[in-house]
Write a structure and sequence with these properties.
- The protein is an alpha+beta fold and about 400 residues long.
- The protein folds into 3 domains: about 45 residues; about 140 residues, Triger factor/SurA peptide-binding fold (Orthogonal Bundle), CATH 1.10.4030; about 110 residues, no CATH class.
- Helices cover about 55% and strands about 15% of the residues.
- It contains 15 helices and 14 strands.
- Strands 7, 8, 11, 12 and 13 form a 5-stranded antiparallel β-sheet that branches.
Length: about 400
């Protein structure tokens, strides 16, 4: 018996077969329409929105959002901050070196400018103000040279400034007048000549082993402190030298030192004057001090010729051509002395006291001058061994 075939169950949308077929077809169509994996990603990346970091970079005004710092991340954040600061370390060191280099350059330029101004003031304008004078005492800049020895500018200025100060304060001539300017030219020449002689004398002193101690300077100053009214104090003496020449105590001591050196060298190098004084000593002893006759017998000419003179009445506390009058006053009147060396580079003296009282004295003298040192300096000038670095009129 033939069973009747079972009809397919009909669903709401049709039969089950139809439903299955339809579902399979729909699945195939969806698979065909679905894009491939690669192209899907590419499309995504092409149409992807910018990230927050990219948006912040594109807009610098966007505030940066920092991550939260925890105990676990604090070490990493600290290292990140330190790493960011290290890039400023070496540029700062470079800047510091640059500051030092720039400072050195500025200092050198300033020093060069100062040297240029000082050179112009000393050698062109020939200024003699206090600042330049103190600078020449610190820095041994030369004003001339003699026989290979540099003449210090300060040695010239101390003489010139003292004479100029005295002229302006005690002389009736005004410095800014025509006569005053002529006097200053003469003072400049005399001061430069004195500095030349002092420098050359210092060179000869080294050759002859001639030295001057502080005690020698004190002895000379001690003698000069004796006045007609008694002995003055050192403070009064220093004030007097400042008032007369505007010299400080150290300036005056240096002037005394140079004077002693010059005098000792002048006596050491002048053999002619030494021979004349030896000859004169014998004649003075045999003639009882007939100085005029002795001078004629000694002969000579020019500056080296022996001279006879009379002091006139002078104060016992004074000095006369480098002679201490107080020492002469100890001689017996009418009796000639032996040879006396002056404390300056003047020469030898034979004296005879003619008149004396409690405060004054009068004596005659036979004078044998020292000329060798001056002759040597003049010869050096003739030989071209003297160079002057400032323009000073000759005479």
């Amino acid at each position: 018996m033939k069973l009747p075939s079972k009809k397919p169950k009909r669903s709401r949308y049709g039969t089950q077969a139809t439903s299955t077929a339809s579902a399979t077809g729909l699945k195939d169509r969806l698979t065909a329409l679905k894009p491939k994996q690669g192209s899907k990603k590419e499309g995504k990346s092409a149409k992807a929105k910018p990230t927050k970091t990219e948006a912040s970079a594109a807009n610098p005004n966007t505030p940066k959002k920092f991550e939260r710092i925890t105990n676990e991340t604090v070490a990493a954040h600290r290292e990140e901050i330190l790493a960011g600061g290290r890039k400023f370390k070496y540029p700062i060191q470079t800047s510091r070196r640059r500051v030092i280099i720039n400072t050195i350059i500025v200092a050198l330029v300033a020093a060069l400018l100062l040297a240029a101004v000082a050179w112009q003031q000393l050698y062109i304008a020939q200024s003699s103000n206090n600042l330049l004078y103190r600078m020449t005492q610190i820095f041994p800049v030369p004003v001339a040279s003699i026989d290979g020895e540099l003449v210090r500018y300060s040695d010239y200025l101390v003489q010139y400034r003292g004479s100029k100060f005295y002229l302006g304060k005690y002389d009736e001539i005004r410095i800014d007048s025509d006569d005053g300017r002529e006097q200053l030219k003469h003072i400049k020449r005399e001061s430069l000549n004195r500095a030349l002689v002092d420098t050359y004398a210092a060179k000869l002193a080294r050759q002859y082993n001639i030295t001057v101690s502080d005690q020698d300077i004190d002895t000379v100053i001690e003698q000069q402190r004796n006045t007609a009214n008694g002995k003055i104090s050192q403070e009064t003496y220093d004030a007097s030298s400042r008032m007369m020449y505007n010299w400080s105590p150290s300036d005056y001591r240096q002037a005394v030192r140079r004077s002693i050196v010059r005098a000792r060298v002048a006596f050491a190098v002048d053999k002619t004057a030494d021979e004349l004084q030896r000859k004169a000593a014998g004649l003075v002893a045999s003639s009882n001090g007939e100085f005029a006759k002795i001078a004629t017998e000694l002969g000579g000419s020019g500056r080296s010729k022996p001279q006879v003179g009379d002091s006139g009445l002078i104060n016992l506390a004074s000095s006369y051509n480098g002679l201490a009058v107080s020492e002469i006053a100890k001689l017996e009147p009418g009796k000639p002395s032996g040879a006396i060396k002056s404390t300056t580079d003047s020469g030898y003296y034979f004296v005879k006291v003619n008149e004396k009282n409690d405060s004054k004295i009068r004596f005659t003298y036979l004078y044998i001058p020292l000329t060798e040192l001056t002759k040597q300096v003049a010869q050096l000038k003739s030989d071209g061994k003297v160079q002057e670095y400032i323009d000073v009129p000759q005479k």
